């Protein structure tokens, strides 16, 4: 199937995605589905192949591709909001995230890219938390979407709808260290996860 839902409006697309998944599950037929819509890919697939420039960058289950992107492109393409990429200095194999020191796969100096999903954070008091300058706070009903910067680099994070954060605030964030993806600044490829 080549983008069969692309010309439908948002509500009809959602309904047809549900119907299509039901038909595909009941038929038991292997189907190749081509789409630029990562929501369709995540929702309909048992396995995803993410291509960029004619090259397959990663193949895996939707949740594995989401949680463990193999490259910066995959992390930025899969997810809404896309994965944040924060270039950070490395000292003695660690980066400073507020008062917390996070071990990295890069043991020497230089820089590393910290890949972080927007929901893999929670509020923390400053200076314990990693400082984020909030440019825009958008209450989305089920959550609060914040757009701003960390180390002068653009980020989007998701907090509970019950949190009170406003545009212009400076907040601290505690990172879920188990959900960080470390990437090479040179190649854009992810370092293997610890224990992998």
Explain what you see.
It is a single chain. The chain has 196 residues and is α+β, with helices and mostly antiparallel strands. 19% of the residues lie in helices and 36% in strands. It is built from four helices and twelve strands; from the N terminus they run H-H-E-E-H-H-E-E-E-E-E-E-E-E-E-E. The strands form four sheets. The protein has a five-stranded antiparallel beta sheet, with no helix packed on it. A three-stranded antiparallel beta sheet has the order 3-6-12. It has a two-stranded antiparallel ribbon with strand order 1-2. The longest helix is centred in the first third of the chain and has 18 residues, at 10-27. The chain is globular. The mean pLDDT is 91.
Identify the notable features of this structure and list them briefly.
single chain, 196 residues, alpha+beta, five-stranded antiparallel beta sheet, three-stranded antiparallel beta sheet, 4 helices, 12 strands, globular
Short description:
This protein is α+β, with helices and mostly antiparallel strands and 196 residues long. It has helices spanning 10-27, 38-44, 62-67, 72-77, and strands spanning 48-52, 55-60, 84-89, 94-97, 100-103, 111-116, 121-124, 130-139, 143-150, 153-160, 170-175, 180-183.
Cα end-to-end separation: 34 Å
Outline the biggest β-sheet: 5 strands, antiparallel
Sequence of secondary-structure elements: HHEEHHEEEEEEEEEE
Number of contiguous helices? 4
| DSSP strand count | 12
Radius of gyration, CA atoms, in whole angstroms: 19 Å
Query: What does the average pLDDT come to?
Result: 91
Would you tell me the structural class of the helices and strands?
alpha+beta
Low-confidence stretches: none
Outline, from the CA principal axes?
globular
Quote the beta fraction.
Answer: 35-45%
- Amount of helix: 10-25%
Strand order of the largest sheet: 7-11-8-9-10
């Amino acid at each position: 199937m080549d983008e069969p839902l692309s010309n439908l409006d948002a509500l009809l697309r959602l309904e047809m995605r549900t119907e299509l998944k039901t038909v595909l599950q009941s038929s038991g037929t292997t189907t190749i589905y081509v789409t630029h819509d990562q929501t369709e890919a995540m929702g309909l697939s048992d396995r995803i192949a993410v291509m960029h420039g004619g090259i397959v960058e990663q193949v895996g289950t939707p949740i594995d591709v989401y949680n463990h992107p193999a490259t910066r492109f995959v992390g930025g393409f899969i997810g809404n909001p896309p994965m944040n990429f924060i270039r950070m200095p490395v000292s003695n194999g660690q980066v400073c995230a507020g008062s917390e020191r996070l071990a990295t796969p890069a043991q020497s100096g230089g820089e590393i890219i910290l890949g972080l999903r927007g929901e893999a954070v929670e509020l923390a008091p400053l200076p314990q938390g990693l400082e984020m300058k909030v440019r825009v706070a958008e209450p989305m009903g089920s959550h609060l979407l914040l757009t701003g910067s960390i180390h002068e680099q653009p980020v989007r994070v998701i907090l509970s709808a019950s949190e009170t954060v406003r545009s212009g605030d400076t907040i601290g964030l505690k990172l879920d260290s188990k959900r960080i993806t470390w990437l090479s600044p040179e190649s854009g490829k992810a370092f293997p996860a610890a224990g992998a």
